[in-house]
Amino acid sequence: MDNENFNIEKNTTKKDILDPLLDPVFQTLFNNERKENTENLVSCILGQRIKIKKIENEYSLTRSSNTEKVGRLDLYAETYDETSFIIELQLENKFNMAQRLIFSNCAKISKQLKRGNDFKKLTPVISIGILNYELPELKGLNIFQAEAALIFSGIKPETRLTNLQRYFIIDLTKVKKLYDKGSNDPLLNWGMYLKDPKSKEVKKIMDKDPEIKKLNNDLEELSQDEQLQREAEFWRMNKINLEWDRASIEEHYMEVRHGEAEKKSAKKLARKTKPLKLLKN
Predict the structure, then answer these.
(1) Each residue of 166-181: b (16+ CB within 10 Å) or e?
(2) Cβ neighbour number for residue 101 with a 10 Å cutoff
(3) Crossing angle of helices 246-257 and 226-240, rounded to 10°
(4) In contact, 121 and 113? CB cutoff 8 Å
(5) pLDDT tens-digit profile of 125-144?
């Protein structure tokens, strides 16, 4: 009887909260079912309220031919006024984030019009990069968020060339330092939560910020999902073992997501992968 009680207690124990910066957790926390979280985050970044119509995870950009490069986005969202949002999460510096954002943004804009359409029908595409490292272009700047815009500089003061393309960079490595300095930027609350949702500072933030409180409630609920736990653990191990081949990792991840690889051992997966060689300076 004691053993039965122990097993019941063990199986119903609340699981630890998952890391929101792991790909499958981030995509689930901000997916179409929880679009309010995405609305709140993007509204905070833009400084104006938006209403999202739909969200797609792992959105693939279409191509006209087999020779065109395909881009896959972490999150893609559209508002009711047809503004598009591309949200990319990158934890390690691949030395291509600026180019990646520009490519996906331009690709999305270029697909909006067909032959004969007026350019006035183009709608804005806003790209947001959430980074866990310092972007080289922003190195040394005491800011954690920046907007890179197409600026026209001439005789007149600098003027934005267009609102059709906008790029926002969120640098999570600078969040804690600025928060400790007493900055009142509400976006810092989001950065602090994504960086470490279990910190003592975040507990204080949740008492004052209902949007972060809701985000935490959603993450706590999601953290009890066994399927998401498996996906998160897989990506966490990938984060530790950086030498795994990315293509094999993504292939196996999709198998895990569809419940086809629950019984595969880590050893069997390791035999299928080849270690990456570090580039020499």
Answers:
(1) bbbbbbbebbbebbee
(2) 21
(3) 170
(4) yes
(5) 999 999 999 888 777 776 67
